[in-house]
């Protein structure tokens, strides 16, 4: 009798565990970590390009020093944040990381816009090669971020859906932070287009 009861309990436990989503959380968590590693890899690639770009631009006489300084400072800030896999479990640290990377993106964009005013720099093949590499890296960052967003969406859906949300609560699987738009208020307004000649 006791043997039957134990067998029944073990069978019931195994059925409950297979339906609780524990293994799904393991799979989804690993997918998020892998996607995050790719994001970090692409951000590192961009960060490694910055010293070469700054050195090339410094060679241009009279280049705007303030723009260069902002790029260097933004890179220093972005690389000062330890981008570990645990970062995706800490919304506050994730937000700081995202802001620092956004500042670096903005500083690099300003640098490239300002460089258009310098014909010698525009004619410099080394600078043009670095610019193309940077643009390719920005595209890779976008692709990696999109994969991360999809992985987090899948994980968070599992963490919030019943009955797997019970497993999430028991084992501490909190929803993971995702990338956000920094200037959401600005882009929510449609741009004004005026084709009238003045």
Can you walk me through this structure?
With 198 residues, this protein is an all-alpha fold. It has a single domain, classed as LemA-like domain (de novo design (two linked rop proteins)). Helices cover 75% and strands 0% of the residues. It is built from 8 helices and no strands. Helix 2 runs antiparallel to helix 3, helix 2 runs antiparallel to helix 6 and helix 3 packs antiparallel against helix 4. The longest helix has 37 residues. The protein is rod-shaped, with a radius of gyration of 24 Å. About 3% of the residues have low confidence.
Number of strands: 0
What is the name of the CATH class? Mainly Alpha
Instruction: Give a short account of the largest sheet.
Output: none
> What distance separates the N and C termini?
95 Å
- Strand composition percent: under 5%
What is the total domain count? 1
CATH homologous superfamily label: LemA-like domain
Gyration radius (Cα, Å) is: 24 Å
List SSEs in N-to-C order: HHHHHHHH
The total of helices stands at 8
What is the mean predicted local confidence, pLDDT? 84
Provide the CATH architecture.
Up-down Bundle
Unreliable stretches (pLDDT < 50, length at least 5) are 184-188
Question: Can you tell me the overall shape?
Answer: rod-shaped
CATH topology grouping: de novo design (two linked rop proteins)
Which structural class do the helices and strands define? mainly alpha
Helix content: over 70%
């Amino acid at each position: 009798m006791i043997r039957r009861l134990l067998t029944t309990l073990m069978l019931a436990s195994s059925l409950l565990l297979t339906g609780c989503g524990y293994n799904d959380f393991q799979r989804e968590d690993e997918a998020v970590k892998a996607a995050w590693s790719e994001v970090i890899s692409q951000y590192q690639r961009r960060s490694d390009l910055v010293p070469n770009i700054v050195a090339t631009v410094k060679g241009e006489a009279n280049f705007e020093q303030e723009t260069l300084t902002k790029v260097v400072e933004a890179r220093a800030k972005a690389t000062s944040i330890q981008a570990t896999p645990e970062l995706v479990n800490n919304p506050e640290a994730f937000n700081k990381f995202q802001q620092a990377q956004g500042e670096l993106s903005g500083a690099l964009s300003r640098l490239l816009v300002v460089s258009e005013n310098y014909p010698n720099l525009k004619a410099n093949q080394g600078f043009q090669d670095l610019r193309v590499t940077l643009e390719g890296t920005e595209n890779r960052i976008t692709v990696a971020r999109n994969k991360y967003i999809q992985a987090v969406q899948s994980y968070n859906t599992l963490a919030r859906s019943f009955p797997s949300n019970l497993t999430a609560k028991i084992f501490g699987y909190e929803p993971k932070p995702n990338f956000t738009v920094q200037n959401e208020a600005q882009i929510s307004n449609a741009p004004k287009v005026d084709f009238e000649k003045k």
